[in-house]
Amino acid sequence: MSDFILVAHGFPSNPDPAEAALAALAQQVGARLPGVRVLAATLAKPGALARVLETLPRARIYPFFMAEGWFTSRQLPRRLADLGSRAEILSPFGADPGLPALVIKTVAEAGPGDLILCAHGSQVARSSRMATMAMVERIGAHLPGRRIAAAFLEEDPHLRDIAAQHPEAICLPFFALRAGHVAQDIPEALARAGFRGRLLPAIGERPEVADLIAAALGRA
């Protein structure tokens, strides 16, 4: 089996916490794959991708992203090409077949209540919206009695509006890393909406994620 590099977007204005979190995740994944080296880099951390490619020049890339969109199909390939790499890019975390079950488990453990699945969204690209709406549809049949609403930070329906309509719901950030959107933008939008419900950690922070990624790399 080849070596792998986990790549995420990160947080440009404060890249170190996300970089450290992704490195810790890569270490956990590597521990589940004996004989395989797994490193990590965020695009936001200057020089990080170049450094790990120097260490693992033949590694395959695992995008720790929630959708197959602009970053995975354009930005990441361009960054790799600029570094002289032709590394294969695998399917992103958001496309993992085990992710719906993890979302269902996360919501069930959080207790009763409506669910707000909050994602990034975009005024231009449709990938984030499509992935989020597909997840809402997949999990709906497995969470009977709950109203499930998708909400976005960058497009309609905005989180602040959905949270105002469901002030006591469970809000699950459909994000990979705990960066600026999860740590700042989502709590601020909920506070402005008078949200009184429960804000969960991002789905990518779940401890089961390392197992999902290790299984995906094992199948690659």
Automatic annotation (TrEMBL):
Gene3D superfamilies: 3.40.50.1400. Keywords: Lyase, Metal-binding. InterPro entries: CbiX-like, Sirohydro_Cobaltochel/CbiX. GO terms for molecular function: lyase activity; metal ion binding. This is Sirohydrochlorin ferrochelatase. It comes from Rhodobacter capsulatus (Rhodopseudomonas capsulata).
